[in-house]
Amino acid sequence: MTTPAASSFILTLTCADRPGIVHAVTGALAGVGGNITEAQQFNDASTQLFFMRVQFDAPGATLASLQAALAPLEARFAATRWALAPAAERMRCAVLVSQFGHCLNDLLFRWKSGALPLELACVVSNHSTFEPLVASYGLPYHRIDVTPASKPEAEARLVSLLEAERVELVVLARYMQILSDALCRRLAGRAINIHHSFLPSFKGAQPYRQAFERGVKIIGATAHYVTTELDEGPIIEQDIARVDHSHDPAELAALGRDVECAVLARAVKWHAERRVLIDGHKTVVFR
Fold first, then answer.
1. Which domains does the chain have, with CATH numbers?
2. What's the rounded mean pLDDT across residues 195-223?
3. Alpha-carbon torsion angle 109, 165, 14, 280, nearest 10
4. pLDDT in tens, 6-46
5. What tens digit of pLDDT does each residue of 144-194 get?
6. Who contacts 268 (Cβ-Cβ below 8 Å, separation ≥6)?
7. Catalytic one among 17, 231, 239, 279?
8. I need a labelling partner for 23 at 20 to 30 A (CA). Which of 50, 72, 110, 287 fits?
9. Contact status, residue 117 vs residue 1, Cβ threshold 8 Å
10. pTM over 0.70
11. What is the DSSP letter of 3?
12. Is residue 231 annotated as part of the catalytic site, yes or no?
């Protein structure tokens, strides 16, 4: 992965759709000596909202000078979302995991090999299973046990840790704990979960056994933002694998793990590159 130049920045915005937005943004960037290297936009006719992501080079400019120069546009269009960040700035991330380690292992490898534009701050778990794996990557591993009685205290410890580590993105890599509504709201728009795509069918234990018994022909995975509605947050990415009668439950589960890893990695990468904008219960993904 090529590291963006220090003079490269990313602007994302969401506002009510109206004429002249693109002209105003590109004109303002030209006014500060910006050269646009990538631009994408979307007009959602169902919500009358406008979404835009622009990556540009502005040699000699600073984040502060650009924010001051572009602030009038934010006010002019009453943007509900407006963010400007250096393209080379790596988002600080924490990964939460329980006892299924395929997604964690995949994320660690992609991060170490430079395929994910992240700064991994730490891994948090309610078990010690993957402490040796995480230690081999030189990352901090924090065990926070969770029981029904200790859940408020455990979540308070987690919040304190995330704040101390300045974490911007939380990835639930098969973290088998349901977050409280308060924590979901606190992490709104910056926590990504992964699960198999049978839901709402085949809930609970052994979903692939249940799927096998029903003779499913497609298995898949969904990566979405965490909300107070369990497993129903805005979807970032999905994928499938076709199966048939010859696949037993173990083979279905193995294929499912592969799909989960790929889907979660794409969702995390796009979020880290500031390519995902939330559109109500949906997302706009500028790939």
1. 8-86 (3.30.70.260), 91-285 (3.40.50.170)
2. 86
3. 80
4. 899 999 999 999 999 999 999 999 999 999 999 999 999 99
5. 999 999 999 999 999 999 999 999 999 999 999 999 999 999 999 999 999
6. 93, 107, 116, 118, 169, 171, 192, 223
7. 231
8. 287
9. yes
10. yes
11. P
12. yes
